[in-house]
Amino acid sequence: MKPCFEALVANLDTFIASLQTEASVDIRLRLVGFRDLHDPTCEYGWDIHEFTENVAQFRSQLSKLEAKCGQKSRGAESSLDALFFAIHSDWRKSKTHRTIILITDDDAYDKLHASLYNRPDNGVERVIQDIQEMRHSMLFMVCPRFAIYRRIADSMVSADRKIAAVWVSNKDGETYQELANLNWASLLKMLGQSISKTSITVT
């Protein structure tokens, strides 16, 4: 994930500027750096920050984010948990366009961790329903082509909800390279413009 973090820091100003292309957007930013909740060998917790209007503060948070966990095995991570956590953030209550950006280089566990949601309906359908119930919202994903992310993307399309997905290879060795080679400046500019345009319709 290191090339992603570096690219986000380097192109943050491009993203912020593009948010103002269609409308004057009063932004708040929140960083949730997630790690593996399901593997007890993971040695580090999540990097959770509150919403901030201070871009410099957000940039500092991003620059300090590290891709480390120390778990003994790979194969999945807490992406679904991170989506659930983000959905239930302390969003503004009115005239708010909510955008969640998920960036990951690994597959996701198919169940939510009990510390976040301890009920039987704790699978991907729970998260999909919660996303679809968010008014004035957009989901933007940069992730490998694993089935769980495809299921989320397809459900958003079928429900006519705003979704943008940038797919990278899910093969060992290719994912890192494709993430590193993405044109992050163009991606973030496009995302900012989309958010700005969509925010005009928020009431």
Structure description:
The protein contains eight helices and five strands. α6 (147-158) links the parallel β4 and β5. 39% of the residues lie in helices and 12% in strands. The mean pLDDT is 90. The chain starts with a helix and ends with a helix. The strands form two sheets. It has a three-stranded parallel beta sheet. The chain has one domain (2-199): 3-Layer(aba) Sandwich (Rossmann fold). The chain is α/β, with parallel strands linked by helices and 203 residues long. It comes from Aquibium oceanicum.
Keywords:
Rossmann fold; 203 residues; alpha/beta; three-stranded parallel beta sheet; 8 helices; 5 strands; two-stranded antiparallel ribbon
Write the layout of secondary structure elements.
Blueprint (H helix, E strand, L loop, with lengths): L1 H9 L1 H7 L13 E2 L13 E2 L6 H10 L14 H9 L10 E6 L20 H9 L4 E8 L2 H12 L3 E7 L5 H8 L2 H16 L4
Parallel strand pairs: 3-4, 4-5
Antiparallel strand pairs: 1-2
Structural class: alpha/beta
Gross geometry:
globular
Largest sheet: 3 strands, parallel
Query: Which range does the strand content fall in?
Result: 5-15%
Annotated CATH topology: Rossmann fold
Give me the number of helical elements.
8
Protein name: VWFA domain-containing protein
InterPro entries: vWFA_dom_sf (IPR036465)
